[in-house]
Amino acid sequence: MQVRVSRGERVENAARPKIEIRKLPFRIPEDAPKYFWRGEKGVTAFAYALSAVFPDGERMFIDAVRHYRDRVTDEELKRAVQEFAGQEAQHGRVHEQYNEYAQRKGLRAVDIMLHTRKRIAAMRERTTPVQRLAATAALEHFTALMAELLLGDPRFAEGVDEAHAELWRWHAAEEAEHKAVAFDVLQLVDPRYRVRMRSYAITSVMFPLTTLIQTYYLMHKDGTLLDVRAHLGLFEFLFVEPGLVRRVLPGWLDYLRPDFHPWDRDDRALLERWKREWAPKAA
């Protein structure tokens, strides 16, 4: 069964799902398949490339949003900021363990994690708090779009080792829950369209480019960079079936609308499905 996200009328605050902080224990066994996504070497490297930036990326998100917490007077948003920080902190903790696990498997995610830490530190020196908040809102939109696909289309998890699938579904569900927090704070602090679009344009280039470079780095260190089959599998995953890039494009375009809001994309049904079918395993 595929649950589709609906678009159209905005989900108002009172109807949005509660942001819950869940502490997921890391429990991927050491003998789990190395190439956990259907045995695909390139797709596995792509997943670990994403994971490698999460620990310090999530901390940057927390700092960017909490920098303006004194400006937030609405009680619901104030509470959402705290819950956002709690969820992101948990994601960073689990993905640090996940990256160390990947490193032990020969996919050197910790190398990328440490490099990401330096890049983010340098970025803090070159950017303003508003720019970092706008970048956070943009990146949260990207992760929310990927969460929609992972939770709503079974092809993204078919044939995937269940321990890995559990971790990614948990992360996806919480990204969907808090997807509007950074955006709402940005709208409060600086609602100018050009501010949002400038960061979105930069992020739309740098995020996929950096992820691809990091994927190739992991494949190089793993000895699979010259494996043609690995590249064909990654291409198929991104552009054909299930087609990650092709499928996120409509949602990417949504953000360009001047009146866009993350909850124009109603994925409450996806979250209910996760809670019903998978959340008990992640408790």
Structural class: mainly alpha
Biggest sheet statistics: 2 strands, antiparallel
Beta strand %: under 5%
Label the overall shape: globular
Helices and strands, in N-to-C order?
EHHHHHHHHHEHH
Averaged pLDDT: 94
Count up the helices.
11
Q: C-alpha Rg, in Å?
A: 18 Å
Q: What is the tally of beta strands?
A: 2
Low-confidence stretches: none
- The first-to-last residue Cα distance is 23 Å
Helix percentage? 55-70%
Record the strand order, biggest sheet. 1-2
Can you summarize this structure?
By secondary structure, the chain is mainly alpha-helical. The protein has helices at residues 41-66, 75-104, 109-126, 129-152, 162-177, 181-189, 193-222, 228-240, 244-254, 268-277, 279-282; strands spanning 6-7, 265-266.
Primary descriptors:
283 residues; mainly alpha; 11 helices; 67% helix; globular
Detailed description of the structure:
67% of the residues lie in helices and 1% in strands. It contains 11 helices and 2 strands, in the order βαααααααααβαα. The protein has a two-stranded antiparallel sheet with strand order 1-2. Helix 1 runs antiparallel to helix 7. The protein is globular, with a radius of gyration of 18 Å. The protein starts with 5 loop residues before the first strand and ends with a helix.
What is the topology?
Blueprint: E1 6-7, H1 41-66, H2 75-104, H3 109-126, H4 129-152, H5 162-177, H6 181-189, H7 193-222, H8 228-240, H9 244-254, E2 265-266, H10 268-277, H11 279-282
Antiparallel strand pairs: 1-2
